[in-house]
Specification:
Number of helices: 12
Oligomer: single chain
Helix content: over 70%
Largest sheet: 2 strands, antiparallel
Strand content: under 5%
Shape: elongated
Radius of gyration: 38 Å
Distance between the termini: 109 Å
Number of strands: 2
Amino acid sequence: MRLLFSLALFLTLSACAGLDYQQSSCEKKNPYFPDMVNCLDKATHADTTIQNDRNNDLLPDYTGYAKGLAEQVKSKKISEDKARSLLADRYNIVNAEVAARKADRNTGRPAIDVIRYHQQICEQEHSSLTKALACTFERWKNDQFQNRYVYKDIGLDYLIYAMQVAKDVVKEKTSEDEARSTLNKRHAALEQAQRERIIATRNIQQERQDAANQSAANNWAYQNCVQQAMSIPKGGFSGPMADVAACQNNPYLAGQNFQRQKQDFDNQAQRQAPKPPQNVNCMPDGWGGFTCRSF
C-alpha cells in the first residue's frame, strides 16, 4: 500500500504542481516505509512553495508523525502496513483541519474547533486520556495563532472542563470511557451555544444594517422633499414659499404633495401664458412675450 493519499494532503496545503513528481519519486525509489518517510521529509523541506504556504504550520503534524512511525517500524514495534494505516488516519485529521480553515477564512476559526483538533492529534499519539488531554493543553498553550481565533471563551470553557475531567480520571472518580463520553457531551453543548451566538450576532448585524439602510432612505426622502418644496415659486398654491417643515414629519408624503403642487402650478402657468395673435408670425422674445410680424 503506497502513500498516495499523502499527495492529496500536500496538494491541498501548497497547491504545488511539482509535488506530484516528488511524492511519486520517493515511493518509487524507496519501497521501505522509513526510507520513503525520510525522502518525503527532505522533499517537503526543500520545497519553498510548501514552506511558504499559509497552512505550513500543519505540516509537522503530518511529517513529524510519519517520522515517529518510521522509527517504530525500524524497531519492529509496528509493521509497515500498520504504519501506513496510522499515517492515513493522521492525514484525515490534518486534511479536515485544512478544509475547516478554508471554510472559516472569512468568519474566523472558532477556538473550540482548534482545541478539538489538538485533542485529536494528541489522542492518536497517547492511548491514555489524561496524557492526551495534557498534550492538548500544551499544544493550545504553544499555539501561535491564538489571537486569531473567535469565541475563545467557549473554547477555554471546554479546555478547563477537560482538565477537570482528567483530574477525575486520575483520582479514579470516573473511568476513561465515561470521561470521553462526558467530554463529547460537553463539546456538543458548547458547539450548540456557539451556533446560537453566531445566529444572534448575525441578527444584530442585520438589524444594524437595516437601520442604516432605513436612515439613508429617510435622508434621501427628506432631501428630495425639500427640493420639491423649494421648486414651487412665490405665489404658488402653498403661499409665498412651501412649508419645508412638513418634510420633517413625513418626507415621503410631503414630497409627493409638493410634487403635485408644482405640477399644478406649471399647468396653470401654461394655460395663462399669452397666446400669439392670429395671422401673424410670432416668436418668443425670451421675456415671457412674443415678437410678431404680420403676413
